[in-house]
Write a structure and sequence with these properties.
Blueprint (H helix, E strand, L loop, with lengths): L1 E3 L8 E4 L2 E11 L7 E8 L5 E7 L3 E4 L3 E11 L2 E6 L5 E5 L15 E7 L2 E6 L3 E9 L13 E5 L4 E4 L8 E5 L4 E5 L1
Antiparallel strand pairs: 1-6, 2-3, 2-6, 3-4, 4-5, 7-8, 7-10, 8-9, 10-11, 12-13, 12-15, 13-14, 15-16
Length: 186
């Protein structure tokens, strides 16, 4: 399926230059002179090489046809993550690199979408939002709530994010897995 260059998103798998590439990062750039473009950092699924490419809105790229299957995350062992199909109880061990930066949001028993290309697993898609507990948060400074400022907080998985000043330790928050930002109260 052909998609426009500006429709590329992190986590997508593209069939580009006769190889399968997983999109790691994107940056939409609109220079003062000339047309806007999408700067895309991709990683080859087969050999792990990286490629930085620019795609304009007029450019089209082939999105790989993948078969998705919901699977449950069981455990991590070294660099391998083990997932189980809840219907057939088949287990698949995948490398931690398949998730990229999103691996920090993976929790035990979480149901994710594992996508296969010719019966080989190529990528893992996490839910768009996950709930986490705040284990540590800075105290509120008087008068700070008047402005739209955020304060640092530490989550149960060890990640640090910025939360509104009224949030405190012990509360649950909703996190965007795509960029690791605060999305709301749970």
């Amino acid at each position: 399926m052909k998609i426009s260059g500006v429709d590329i998103r992190p986590g997508m798998v593209l069939d580009y230059q006769n190889k399968l590439w997983r999109v790691a990062k994107i940056q939409h750039t609109q220079p003062g002179k000339g047309g806007a473009y999408m700067q895309v950092e991709m990683k080859c699924i087969t050999d792990g090489t990286k490629l930085n490419e620019r795609f304009r809105s007029a450019d089209t790229v082939e999105k790989a046809q993948l078969m998705g299957k919901p699977m449950q995350f069981l455990f991590a062992e070294g660099d391998n993550l083990t997932f189980m199909d809840n219907e057939t109880y088949d287990q698949v061990a995948l490398n931690r690199d398949m998730l990229g930066d999103q691996v920090v949001w993976l929790a035990e028993n979480m149901v994710v979408n594992v996508e296969f290309y010719n019966d080989a697993p190529v990528t893992v898609s996490l839910p768009e939002k996950v709930e986490m507990d705040i284990v540590e948060a800075d105290a509120v400074v008087k008068g700070q709530t008047a402005s739209s400022s955020y304060k640092p907080a530490k989550l149960a998985n060890g990640e640090k994010i910025l939360v509104p000043p009224y949030m405190s330790a012990g509360e649950r928050v909703v996190i965007n897995t795509a960029d690791g930002t605060y999305a709301g109260r749970a």
